[in-house]
Amino acid sequence: MPATPAVPNGKRPTLADVASRAGVSTALVSIVMRGAKGAGEATRERVLQAAREIGYRPDARARLLRSHRSHLLGVQFGLQHPFHSDLVEGIYAAAEPAGYQIALSAVAAGRGEQRAVETLLDDRCEALILLGPQAPAARLAELAGQLPVVSVARRLRPSVPGLEVVRTADDEGARQAVAHLVALGHRDIAHIDGGRAPGAADRRRGYRTAMNRHGLGEYIRILPGGLTEEEGAEAARTLSATRPRPTAVLAFNDRCATGVLDLFLRSGVAVPGDISVVGFDDSHLARLAHIDLTTVGQDIARLAGLAVGRAVARLEGAEIPAGEQVITPRLVVRGTSAPPR
Amino acid sequence: MPATPAVPNGKRPTLADVASRAGVSTALVSIVMRGAKGAGEATRERVLQAAREIGYRPDARARLLRSHRSHLLGVQFGLQHPFHSDLVEGIYAAAEPAGYQIALSAVAAGRGEQRAVETLLDDRCEALILLGPQAPAARLAELAGQLPVVSVARRLRPSVPGLEVVRTADDEGARQAVAHLVALGHRDIAHIDGGRAPGAADRRRGYRTAMNRHGLGEYIRILPGGLTEEEGAEAARTLSATRPRPTAVLAFNDRCATGVLDLFLRSGVAVPGDISVVGFDDSHLARLAHIDLTTVGQDIARLAGLAVGRAVARLEGAEIPAGEQVITPRLVVRGTSAPPR
DNA sequence: ACGGAGTTCTAGAACGTTCTAGTTCCTTGA
DNA sequence: TCAAGGAACTAGAACGTTCTAGAACTCCGT
């Protein structure tokens, strides 16, 4: 039972408490706690022992207040996006070994991006990592003027000065999906798009150019969709009533594709027998055995690692040209795509 | 364009900067920024103007360091649980009007509860709200000895002293589900459980007692499940091969139920024609038009509000007896339940 | 015996706020 | 005219750290 309350008064133990117990100065305790050099082996042990005994934990806020560096990366993410959850998981994993902490700020109903970013700034984050930000480019530029900012999964055109961008080559992903379907023998391939969501424009463009390149321009059909299951199902409803019905469909993302799958199953359209379905993201969802979705894999760990990497590089003064890191996606073939019959 | 950099040197503007620009003391600026009384109307305007001009934002950490109160609630949640996302959303909404800020700390692969809680403590949170904590009761008790702790959606038995518990009456929920199915005419009702997940034991118990109470003890069948789609699908696979096949199934939660639904659809078992399916949580998932799941609704907004409320009450010194807040769930009947044929 | 070079340690000033205890100045009532 | 009371404002000490100097001590070669 190492951590009994053990505080003289009611307050939380501080450097001074440890110091007086170990019979040294607070400065020395600080040195020991940070693992800095400049303390004798014996004293170090004694201090650590004292700290352990009274259950001392350094006060992160006081620490940050004093030291010029905060080693804090602010991450803005959407609570309702599984893809963001996966990214955050990757960001945690990448930040720890680099010696940085993560401050999370969620975008949710009644809590917009503006607010989310403000709290991060108030917490003195050194850099911002924004997942799929929807804020206008001007706002991002303004932020980028204040501190390093990394935008993940959103293309910015023209590029905002000082802003780092880490994204998947969405157009290339769409091209790969189309190529896969064409190789299977499909010709009539529809696309359910993501409207104004980040990446949607690129995926739409990639689909269109791929179709044209394969000489299938006449089959191009883009249905308004979105990034939720409901919007996918809605588009699928339209699709299933269309004659002739396409033999394959590329959905904006996995959530959207799941909605499509579900509606098809319910209305007796066999997948992949009657129609092939391809998603985008390779989120946890797609990998589930009972969904088993063919999808365009975004390398989430890589995106996260790169986002952290760019932020850290900028912070550590590397004079890298602010720029775009584009990651090539990789098609993951699973059970929802097959030759048309 | 109100927020140009506008800082003399490269640093972020501070109270002193505003003070010298407005020609007053830092103390007065502090008063004005906090909206405290004790400043003249004219000066107040002048200070605010100066602050606006140089783009001043108070430093949250310095502020917290000085003022004894931090008005910070630490929230631990699971990144991969949609139900937690919904709760967090509700917590944000409840905390704001109460004058509290939220610090998020995620539990993810490679980042356990221990670590998540430690960072919250380091940030000097005043109270902890733990969503579905898995930590042993002893650990929770230890925490509760240090600061107010609210455990959401996990029953603790025997009750841990000093710990606040906010939860849904899981057993009652299961009873409602069974009653609904029985009223529809079902007798052979199976339950896919949640193993060691928070709430699972209570739901299991509720199912069992309800079955007995309706004189259906001989039909009791509990399949090992879990809280993910995969585990639900796995159990459904077993179930669909069982003869005689139950005419209804109560799944541990909505994710699990979704897995069940999907497997049934794929294997040609009609829902609700051949078998009725009931979930638990009423998360976003269940409400999706294409899933349309009958489910036991947890009042998420209420749970969140209560969690914040209890934490705040304890902080503001209300000497409420530490105790359990149990919320009665409400069955939401949708499209996956119908009379057996 | 002495100067230099490490080491190990300490005093005290930051960091950007809020808080306590005043001080100054204006009203106002007797 | 004067004290009392309040409003408007300020100086300076906190808060719990880290950082900059420098002090005290040891170890060496000369």
TrEMBL record, chains A, B:
Annotated keywords: DNA-binding, Transcription, Transcription regulation
UniProt xrefs under PROSITE patterns: HTH_LACI_2 (PS50932)
Signal sequence, renumbered to the chain: none
Residue intervals of the HTH lacI-type domain: 13-67
SUPFAM superfamilies, A to Z: lambda repressor-like DNA-binding domains, Periplasmic binding protein-like I
Gene3D superfamilies: 3.40.50.2300, lambda repressor-like DNA-binding domains (1.10.260.40)
GO function terms (MF aspect): DNA-binding transcription factor activity; transcription cis-regulatory region binding
Listed name of the protein: LacI family transcriptional regulator
Annotated source species: Streptomyces resistomycificus
Lineage: Bacteria, Bacillati, Actinomycetota, Actinomycetes, Kitasatosporales
